[in-house]
Amino acid sequence: MSRLYGEIRQIAFVVHDLDAALTEWTQVLGIGPFFVLRDVVPADFRYRGEPAPGPHLSIALGNSGDVQVEIIEQHDSQPSAYREFLDAGREGLQHVSSWLTPAEYDASRARLLAAGSEIVHEGLVSVSEVRFAYFATERSSTPLYEIADVRQPRVYRGMEAIAEAARDWDGSDPVRVIG
Questions:
Q1: Neighbours of 137 (CB within 10 A)
Q2: Which end of the chain is more exposed for a tag (fewer CB within 10 A), N or C?
Q3: pLDDT for 132-177, tens place per residue?
Q4: What DSSP character marks residue 159?
Q5: Count helices and strands in the chain by DSSP H and E runs
Q6: Which residues of 149-169 are buried (b: 16+ CB within 10 A; e: fewer)?
Q7: Which is more confident, 8 or 68?
Q8: Residue closest to 97 by CA, chosen among 58, 67, 62
Q9: What is the rounded CA–CA span in Å between residue 7 and residue 139?
Q10: Could you tell me if 173 and 166 are in contact, meaning their C-beta atoms sit under 8 angstroms apart?
Q11: 161: DSSP letter
């Protein structure tokens, strides 16, 4: 567990082609099923401290044991941590995430900012009302660290359902579109 951010519950990959990545994860690595949200645009988005239009995203969520795997494709050129990552010629592991209660999120965000940490981008996933903030880390080779207030009953039940689907997954129906 990170003494600064909390327990890592998710690893996240930013890719140019979500569907190609899903084929790799499900067929080559045997991890799935993945639950896909298409046409997601975060609300209340801020990029490097300034209000900004939210990026247009597709997001896939699946589990390997207790760790959730998130795969993100950004479809537009709006400024974001995802766009920075891709524009730097990178693709793959971009951030890790801790899941917090709303109160823990508020306290952690305030504590991290007071300690001088920089938020690269932050916003709200409207469909779930989950707030997120991506903090820059010291080295460019280290992934960003996200905090998200996922540990609210309605949202957390959904994350548990994704993990449960992976426990007994037989390889069928590897990509399930939701929302």
A1: 18
A2: N
A3: 999 997 666 678 999 999 999 989 999 999 999 999 999 999 999 9
A4: H
A5: 4, 11
A6: bbbbeebeebbeebbebbeeb
A7: 68
A8: 67
A9: 20
A10: no
A11: H
Residue type, 102: P
Sheet strands (E) in 23-126: 34-40, 43-47, 50-51, 57-64, 67-74, 92-99, 119-125
Q: Burial of 78 by CB count in 10 Å (0-12 exposed, 13-18 middle, 19+ buried)?
A: middle
d(CA 22, CA 126) in angstroms, rounded, equals 24
Tokens of 10: 């998710």
- The candidate with the shortest Cα–Cα distance to 72, out of 138, 117, 125, 108, is 125
pTM of the model: 0.95
Q: Given the DSSP bridges, would you call strands 67-74 and 8-15 parallel, antiparallel or unpaired?
A: parallel
Here the tokens at position 130 are 């989950």
